[in-house]
Structures are given as structure tokens and as C-alpha cells.
Amino acid sequence: MADSVLLPHSEVGQHFINLFGDYLWESIESPNVAPARWRTLKHQLRPRVLWEQWNNPTVLVGVRFGHTTRYGMLDLDAGGRYCIPSAITEIRGALETVGLNRTVLVRSSHRGGLHLYIPLPEAIKTFDLACIITQCLKAQGFTLEKGHLEVFPNPKTYGVDQFVEYNGHRLPLQPQSGSWLLTDDLEPQGDSLSTFFEQWEWAALGQDLEMLLLSAPHARESRKQEFNRRSLSPQAQEWKDDLDIEIREGWTGSGQTNRLLKSIATRSHVFEGLSGTALVDRIVELAIASPGFQEHCRHQNEIRSKARHWAKSVEGYYWPIGTRRGQRIPGGENTLHQLDARDRIAQAVAALKDTEFPSIRSFAAAIANAARSSLQTLYRNTDLWHPEKSPVTVTGQGVEPADVDRESISNAIAEAENPCNQPVLHTTGGGMKCGGPEAGLKNSFSLDGGVRGGDFSFPQPPAPKNNPIPIPFDECYAAIQSSVRQLGWSMERLKGFLSEKFGRSRMAELFDEELFVLLYWLRLERVDAQC
After folding, report:
1. Are 166 and 64 in contact (CB under 8 A)?
2. CA distance 289 to 333
């Protein structure tokens, strides 16, 4: 505290202000009655006035936290689940895991509540300490709840229109307030401030500040993820509601076990953050409790085995809301359509994992057909299947091939081996103004340029066997961009061209087949420009 601050004359008063007088805005006070009737002071309290009020037996006084603090405190209300010696011992053990090794225990008032002070050897950021203590206790199974256990400073939110203060707490050992120093067995030790200061200094010297500060980034990140999980986007909320409806109805007939277990697993992992054994337990618990389980589920004897399969599968390509795994977060930038597509792709990969394909392109075509997905969508999710782009080979562990239509698998394999049957690239008669591949092609097509023919049939040569895709979609996009640059077109010129040819002004709005058509038209524009 600055030398210019007017401190109390007594050394005890000065020491007291040095501990609790760093931030005196929005202080709180109440008449010394039970229960207390707290009100917030709308002015900055002066240090000497604070000391005088602390000594006044008719008034209770409290303070808040500023940007930094040299202590924390836990409030354990009388009658709450943690206001007993055994719980205090467990809390102290939990705090030691983040370097907070010593505390000072005080009875807060006549009602018997407890304040567990956590002195620090030097000031740290208040919000860091709030997050560290809160996340430490939550991670070790303590429930933070008013009337039982509260953390000071609290991990407050940031106000948009006005500044949000940290919660205030009453000051310890005020005369005739019922506040006493306590032993570990909750026996009174008196209300001497000198003894309190001695215990405070002893506790501060015993803290592992290095360990505490190392915990700060992790605690802040955990708090952020927790906040994000509570604040669902509209898309995530819609997804969660859909899963809840599906789960709530339960079994209404046979053959529904896989679908229901998948919904339960997804909901429990993504929106409850469960994983591993806890996720398996939750799947089993909800499945057995669901309507129709006893009447219609044909897998009651193997429900846990199936729960393990689905838990592993869901953890493979979904992740809890608010975490940062991958670039696409369910319910965030992903849409429900994209999530469903990833689901179908993963199942198709699982069903095709034992089938050999001569090339990645033929494999991609088979997946697209089995998953009922476009190739463009497939290439946007290469992490699920492409051996060169997926950090872990995805084999669909836990995804049962029975969930993919067997007929679509057979068709996919047949179509991958017969490029003339590929609907993505080869049109059929009547689909466009051409006769399809069986009628022959009058135009040639290459990546270097196009040649205008007599008719405007779809521009592609007969695809080689087992290689039905002339270029992947990422290469198609690159070729389109290269053509636009070579033509020297502005973005407005390209939008006008798209509107003229397709009735839409953005490439993102085009269907898969239309992207290849766009590349063809751009090639023709380049040929015309060179003539």
C-alpha cells in the first residue's frame, strides 16, 4: 500500500488494512444482527474508516477483491455438507494439489459457518486464483453451491454495459460477531488479531507459488470450456433437443438398439463431457431405464458390450462441446447436416474396411455411394478416411457395419469398379442436354484447356476403370481459382458469371457436379480469350 495512504495509528490496525484494505470500492456492511442484512456502499471506503467500523460492535463490515489479491477464502455454511472436520481435511488435501498447502480456519459468525482463508506470499491475479481454486475443487468431486461451499474470489463474468464486481465477504474476528479462530477439530482458539496474523504469515510461507502459477493457464482454459458447454449455440441446442427426444421415446420395436445406443452415447459424450468408463456406465444406465428396453431390446445380455463399442466409436469422431479437438466443433461451426454426413461416412468406412480397392479414388467413390454422400462432402472430411490426411487410420471401431445398408455397400463396390455407372461425373440420358456416356462424347477435356465441340455435352473423357474421378474436389477448386486468375476476373465478374450460368452467385452454393461444369465453362472462356 502506498505511503500516502492514511492508515490507522495502531500497528495492529495497519497490519489489518495491509491484508484486507487493497480494494475498498463497493464494500459491504450490515447491522450486527442475525441474520445479517448486507448492503453495498456506493463509495470508496477509507482505510481508517474501515478499521473503525471493524472495531464497532454494532456494525458488520466486508470487502471485495480488486484486480490482484494476496489471499483466497472458502465459505462453508453451517448445516452444509462440508461444514465438518472430515470434509475440511478433504478440501485441504485437494488444495495441496495446486500448491496451496496451508490454510487458516475461522468461525465466521454466531451461526457457526466456517471461513477457510488461503493466504499467499505475494499478490497474484484475482481471476487466476478464482479459476484455480474453483476448478481444483470441481475436478476432485466437490460441489460448489450456495449454502454449502462457495469460493472467494469467485470466477466472475465480465460485464458488457457495466463493471461486474467480485463477491464480497465479511471480515474475520470482529468484536461481538461470533467470529473465532478454530483448531482443526473446530475448537475455539480465541479472537486475537495478533494470533490470526501469526497463523496468516505461517500459512503464506508454506504455499508453493510456482505450482500455483503453473496451474493458472489450465484452470482458465477449463473454466472457459465449462462456460462454452453451458452456452450452446442454436445449432448445438437443436442437436441436443433432437437427441433428447429420440432417447426419451426409447424402444418401440425390435431392431432399434444400435440407433438408441448411439444417440445416448453421443448425447452423454458431447453434452455431458463423459468419456471412458464413465461414458459406458452412463450409456448402460440410460439404456436400461429407457421405455421399452425390457419388451423390445434383443441385446439385454450384451448391453454393456455394445455400450463399450458405441462409447469408443463416439469418442473417435465427436468431442465435448467447448473443447478444442479438431477444427470442427459439433454445434459450433458445424451444422447438423455436416455432423450427420460425418456419421454416415464413418459407418461406411467401417463397412468397407475389409474390401480392397486399387486406388484411393475408387475407395472414395465407394465410400460416397455407401454413405449416400457427395464426393465434395467426402473430401471435406478426409480425416475420417484418407490414409494420407488422417493422423489415425479410421476403421470405424465400434461402429457396426449392420448400420449401413448392405445393398448400398454392394452397389458402391460395383459402381466403383464400373465408372460408366458413376452418377457424379457421367450423366445419364435426359439428365442434361446430352445422351450420356453410352452415346459417346464429342468434346475432349483436360486440365490444360477445353475444345469447343458441336454440342454442349458434359465435358469428360471415358474414365479409366476403377478411377472414375478425373480430379479430387480440392484439385477442382484449385483449377477453378487458377482459371479465374488467368482470365484476370474480379470477384464481381465471377459472381456475375455464376449468376448467368447457375442462377447463384457463390461457389459454395453450387452442387458437386456443377463445380466440374464451372471448370469446363471457365476453360471455354480461356479458349475464347486466346482466339
Report:
1. yes
2. 33
- CB-based contacts of 491, cutoff 8 Å, min separation 6: none
Task: Please list, in sequence order, all residues whose beta carbon lies within 8 angstroms of the beta carbon of residue 226, skipping any fewer than 6 positions away.
Answer: 322
Strand pairing of 449-450 and 149-152?
Answer: unpaired
| Residue reference for cell 455438507 | 81
Sign of CA dihedral 78, 82, 84, 85: negative
Measured over the CA atoms of residue 36, residue 37, residue 40 and residue 44, the dihedral's sign is negative
Q: What's the CA gap between 94 and 78, in Å, rounded?
A: 21
Predicted confidence pLDDT, tens digits, the chain (531 residues): 655 678 898 999 999 999 999 999 999 999 999 888 999 998 899 999 999 999 999 999 999 999 999 999 999 999 999 999 999 999 999 999 899 999 999 999 999 999 999 999 999 999 999 999 999 998 888 989 888 999 999 998 765 456 789 999 999 999 999 999 999 889 999 999 999 999 999 999 999 999 999 888 888 887 877 766 566 667 778 888 889 998 998 999 988 988 899 899 999 988 888 888 889 999 999 999 999 999 999 889 999 999 998 888 888 767 787 665 443 333 333 444 566 677 788 888 888 877 888 777 788 888 888 888 777 777 777 778 877 654 433 333 333 333 444 444 445 444 444 444 444 333 333 333 334 333 333 333 333 333 333 333 333 333 333 333 445 555 676 778 788 888 888 888 888 888 888 777 777 666 656 677 788 788 878 777 766
176: left (phi over 0), alpha (psi -120 to 50) or beta: left
First-to-last CA distance in the chain? 82
Which residue(s) pair with 181 in the sheet?
106, 190
Cell numbers at 295, concatenated: 419388451
- Beta strands at 149-152 and 445-446: parallel, antiparallel or unpaired: unpaired
C-alpha to C-alpha distance for 318 and 339, rounded to whole angstroms? 9
Strand (E) or helix (H) holding 52: helix 47-55
Those residues with Cβ within 8 angstroms of residue 508's Cβ, 6 or more apart along the chain or in another chain? none
CA-CA distance, 116 to 76, in Å (whole number)? 8
Q: Write the DSSP assignment of 458-498 as a string of letters.
A: ---PPPPTT---SS-HHHHHHHHHHHHHHHT--HHHHHHHH
Question: How far, in Å, CA of 330 to CA of 233, rounded?
Answer: 10
For the record, the C-alpha cell of 289 comes out as 431405464
CA distance 286 to 499: 51
Match 468434346 to its residue by C-alpha cell: 443
Residue 153, preceding peptide bond in cis (omega within 30° of 0):
yes
Give the rounded distance of the alpha carbon of 40 from its chain centre.
36
C-alpha grid cell for residue 424?
457424379
Task: For residue 527, count other CB atoms closer than 10 A to its CB.
Answer: 13
> Are 256 and 249 within 8 A, CB to CB?
no
Q: Is residue 328 a contact partner of residue 334, using CB atoms and an 8 Å limit?
A: yes
